[in-house]
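The aim of this short unit is practical: by the end, you should be able to scan a pair of folded records and say something sensible about each. We start with the first protein, listed as its amino acid sequence and then its structure tokens.
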Amino acid sequence: MITEGGDNLSGADNQQGRPARGLTPDYLAGFVDGEGCFSVSIRPHPTVRAGWLVGPCFQVYQHQANVGILEEIMAFFGCGRIASKGPNSSVMTYSVYRRTDLESVIIPFFDAHPLLSQKHRDFLKFRDVVLAMSRKEHGTGEGFRRIVEVAFSMNQRGKQRRYQLTDILPEPSETARRAPAQLELVKIQSEPRGDVGRTAEMTVPPPSLSVGG
């Protein structure tokens, strides 16, 4: 099952202690603090040799019995999709991949309603990546390198990533080599699920090359 974002809800039941008249910004920020994730996946582009896809994504998880809260969150933001985490999973995931939605909806919301946990630090790095991509900084080898290093500094230093930093950047910068102990610890997923059939956000040249943006 996949559900797409629509109009905002004006009311809701009082499941999981949420306000009876729908979500409030403070409630939503607190809920995301516990159940949400900001991630930046990096994987090979399927059609371009030596290219990589960088995919920032905002997600919130719930058991399928509580999918109603995800539907309310999707209605609150007015974007994103809800889908099962996997073919045999009982977990449902609300995901926002589209960069324009991240930039115009998700980032402004969490700027105005900051998270209280360590996820706030991950959010700041996530925002850095999204805004750098919007400025087309990924169009140069150096800009791509910086985006990748920021992504790998998130979420347990990429502990659960399929690809290592050296797979993507054969020669990481001196900063990346010397500062691993300073990177924050938060949960990561390497290839979050969400929008099916979405187009690639970014295709990059080999790190040694630069292209116009």
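Turning to the second protein, read its sequence before its tokens, just as you did above.
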Amino acid sequence: MADLPNAAVKRVLLANGVGRISASAVTLAAEATQEFLVRLAKHSATGAVNAKRRTVMDEDIAAAKAALLGSNTF
């Protein structure tokens, strides 16, 4: 089960072209989103450690996003 609130995930989906979505699909989208955030956090933390910092900065997240998504834009 995802820690993200389903209502927030549903709002994002509806605001981006999804007309109707089942409750189980919202839950699945929330779980997928959480999995991506976990991967993003791990990559970002590694970037901070490699830069000899304990604080994750925006450039760490940007680099992690680029590594995870490549040149894909959504």
